[in-house]
Amino acid sequence: MAKLAAVISSELGAEVEITKAGALLHDLGKAMDHNTEGTHAMIGAEFARRYGVHSKVINIIASHHHEVDQESVEAVIVEAADAISGARPGARREDLEQYIKRLRALEEIANSFKGVAQSYAIQAGREVRIIVKPEDIDDLDATHLAKDIAKKIEETMQYPGQIKVTVIRETRAIEFAK
């Protein structure tokens, strides 16, 4: 990830060393004591702050999951490199079979709800997009459906980070000229 971030940083004229440091340390909080309160991004940023790490690197660590605002282009680059790296099959230390099972499980959860036409697990299982039947689900129902699916995913699956649930409802206005 650091190499990828460095290449992007170099191409964009950003500070390569800051970007590389941020890429290497962005998940620092995952290595901390699990009895510590807070997210890994906040824990890692606080640890880096205590040990005098550059303020831009601290912001990269704290903001890579949008818990705080990104204050530099380097922070955006590290987030992009993290997404690229994490989206490839096998990046999450699971074999291909487990990866496919997890994607299918996400789609099956979404498909189990009334009014769902199709669902697609994307972004290495970090997002599920659900297409609903517009004749069965109105705009308000679509909002409730997204919450209900997210809740069922939380209750029935184990996964790192978060999963974005997007419900898509098509609106068509059709009229015939005679």
Query: What is the helix content?
Result: 40-55%
- Integer-rounded radius of gyration: 20 Å
Terminal CA distance reads 60 Å
- Summarize the biggest pleated sheet: 3 strands, mixed
Strand content: 5-15%
Mean pLDDT reading: 90
User: What is the β-strand count?
Assistant: 3
Strand-pairing-aware structural class: mainly alpha
- Our count of helices gives 7
The 3D shape can be described as elongated
Placed side by side, the strands forming the largest sheet appear as: 1-2-3
Order of helices and strands: HHHHHHEEHE
Low-confidence stretches: none
Topology:
Layout: H1 2-12, H2 16-25, H3 40-50, H4 55-63, H5 73-86, H6 96-111, E1 116-122, E2 127-132, H7 139-156, E3 164-168
Parallel strand pairs: 2-3
Antiparallel strand pairs: 1-2
Helix pairs in contact: 1-2, 1-5, 2-4, 2-5, 3-4, 4-5
Keywords:
178 residues, elongated, three-stranded mixed sheet, mainly alpha, single chain
Structural account:
The mean pLDDT is 90. Strands 1-2-3 form a three-stranded mixed β-sheet, with helices on one face. Strand 1 (116-122) and strand 2 form a beta hairpin. The protein has helices at 2-12, 16-25, 40-50, 55-63, 73-86, 96-111, 139-156; strands at residues 116-122, 127-132, 164-168. It is mainly α. The protein contains seven helices and three strands.
Quick summary of this structure?
With 178 residues, this protein is mainly α. Helices cover 50% and strands 10% of the residues. A three-stranded mixed beta sheet has the order 1-2-3, with helices on one face.
